Queue: 2 jobs
Job 1
Amino acid sequence: MGLSAIDEWAIVSDGGQVKPVLKILFGAILFCGFAWLGWWIWQGDGETFSVMIRGEKLPEPDPARYEVLVSELERWQQELGARYQSAATDREREAIEHDARVILELVMPEMMYCWLGTGYDFNGTAEKPGEGPVACGYFVSTVIRDAGFKVNRYKLAQQPSGNIMRTFLPKAACQLKVGADYDSYVDWLEGMRPGIYLIGLDTHVGFIINEGSGIKFIHSSGSGPYGVVAQKREKATALKVSNWRMIGSFSSDAGVIRTWLRRETVKVKN
């Protein structure tokens, strides 16, 4: 059997014996290597390592697709808005509101996915996926603005999560639970109507996408892996550890849909 490179390096000429000092040195290198790998996995909650061993590519921001989606959604907003303005009956308007909700629920999550892999910074204000780091509030406010809502994204992003939600939703539509058991809470979320939700936590804000078969928490994470992520319930650490959770349905709220169709300016709650 042939010798490996390590074997050849370790063996010396005096009878083929390995010098003790080389054994110690090689062992130290292995120990340091595994220690570093363990720290790396811990920092990234294991996600980066699991992706690496599966041979998959990590998400990369997709600004080009984002621009296409923004443009398409603007076209739909113009078309549906014109129909809404000329509608003669409540039944016609309700049908257009339904169509608008369907379009938003199809396109907005795809816009969010374009941000995956964008880095996080507490002061990050990136306007497009991957052009720089983005804080949680700026991620939420930018996606909402680019979806066609006329809102000051800077002012909105700088508000506490409760104010961000109340900017779009009435108080009665924002459901607050404090200290709820995590698994029971997520079970409750998964039982709600499929769609796009805004969620505010102790010191964080993001989107919940209820897909009917489960949820995804899409947010700019201030902990590992430090960036925009879409996490299922098992990986959504920020959602799990938060004591304060307020949620409201963004896409099924009639006021939100009408604001979008009429292109009304949204006044930020502060």
Job 2
Amino acid sequence: MSQPDLDVDLLRSFLAVAETGGFTTAGERLGRTQSAISVKIRRLEEILGRRVFARTSRSLALTADGELLLGYARRMLALHDETLRRFSEPEAEGELRIGVAEYFVPRHLPAVLSAFARAHPRVRVEVRAAMGSSLMEALDRGTVDLVIANRDAGVDRGRVLMTEPLRWVAAADFRIDAEAPLPLCTLPAPCIFRARAIEALDQRLRRWRVVYTSESVSGVSAAVTAGLGIGVLCDSTVPAGLRLLTDEHGFPPLGEVELAVFGEAKAPPALAQSFTGFVAERLRALLPGRCAA
């Protein structure tokens, strides 16, 4: 007996409910009524023969099967949307010079660039990874076409791709001496991470000293992992093995930072639209719940 096909629309409704935490908010995201979303979830559960949500009058949560489906749904929808974009967009062709903040490179950029190259074989992408401040200078000089980097609160320039919190991190066995200045491993100034950390410590009247400075986030992570001191990283870049330090440990919240794209107005329109749209879609698949609509 042949198996029924999984309708993409059902998966999109499921993902919207899982990410927003409710049928009403999922309907608002997709432009559907709450009852329409409920019907789609019931149909999905009928096809799978499994319950994907545990529902009560007060709460909604993924079942174990729902958790399993979530990963499949994200990958299937990402591939579906990539396929449609590949055939619906005009064939992009040319060269695009991209500046990317170094912290974004280690985990996410290689996969994004590989997928973009497959979808747009006629686009030649030249990537420069550096600190955000030097990339913005390069953008102003015209030596790069687009920049993907952090921007601080109150900055209007650029378009937000995603938002995520900053985290205090330390090695699992690192011991904090309350009587000594706090050793910091950090990026050089000017840097949002560094500025936020120092401001927070100064407000708490906590003494500090910089013991390690690196122009790469991977260098800061390595120093923290080795136990040289405390660091500040974006949530999505915290490597396994480091522990998070919270207000309970005497480390105040550092707020959130925005990852934004800069230079779209002056970059080659077709190339910029194809690349930034692709990056935004991939980020939504990799880091759901943090990305701009």
